[in-house]
Design brief:
It is a single chain. The chain is mostly helical and 151 residues long. Helix content is 79%, strand content 0%. The chain contains four helices and no strands. Helix 1 runs antiparallel to helix 2 and helix 2 runs antiparallel to helix 3. The two termini are 37 Å apart.
C-alpha cells in the first residue's frame, strides 16, 4: 500500500498560504513600511515558524493515522477472505461427501425421486450462497446479508 501524503501536502500548502497571508496582514493592516515575506522581528519570525511547524506536524500525523486505518481495513478484508476461503474449503469437502450419499440414495429403490430433487436444490443453493459470499469486495453487514438472505 503506497502512502500518498495527502494531508502533509495539504498542510504544506496551507502553511505557505498562512505565511503569505500573515505577511500581507502585517503590511496592509499594521501599516508596515515594506512588505516582508521573512519578518525582521525575531519574535514574529519565531511565532510563524512555530505555527508552520504545528500545521505541517498535524498534516504528517493525520497521514500517519489515515495510513494505519487503511492498513487495518486491508488486514480485516484479508482475514475475511481467508475465512471465506477456509469455509468454502470445508463446505466443499462436506458437499463432496453429500454427493456420495446422493449416489447411494439414487441407486436405492427406497428413496422417493422428489427427495433427491429437493436434496439437489439444497446443495445447489448452498453452493451458490457460498460463492456469492466469496465475491464480496467490501465486506460489511449489509453486503453480506444481501448475498445470502432469501429474497
Amino acid at each position: 500500500m503506497k502512502k500518498d501524503y495527502f494531508y502533509t501536502k495539504a498542510s504544506l500548502i496551507f502553511a505557505l498560504f498562512y505565511w503569505i497571508l500573515e505577511s500581507t496582514i502585517h503590511y496592509s493592516i499594521f501599516k508596515e513600511v515594506e512588505f516582508q515575506l521573512i519578518p525582521h522581528d525575531l519574535n514574529e519570525l519565531w511565532m510563524r515558524i512555530v505555527i508552520i511547524f504545528l500545521l505541517i506536524s498535524f498534516g504528517f500525523f493525520a497521514d500517519l493515522h489515515a495510513y494505519r486505518i487503511l492498513v487495518k481495513e486491508r488486514e480485516k478484508r484479508e482475514i475475511y477472505k481467508a475465512m471465506i476461503n477456509a469455509s468454502q474449503h470445508i463446505l466443499n469437502n462436506f458437499l463432496q461427501s453429500m454427493t456420495l450419499f446422493r449416489d447411494v440414495a439414487e441407486n436405492s429403490s427406497d428413496i422417493d425421486e422428489n427427495i433427491i430433487k429437493l436434496y439437489d436444490q439444497t446443495i445447489n443453493s448452498a453452493t451458490t450462497q457460498l460463492n456469492n459470499l466469496k465475491d464480496i469486495e467490501n465486506p460489511n453487514k449489509e453486503s453480506i446479508e444481501e448475498k445470502f438472505l432469501p429474497k
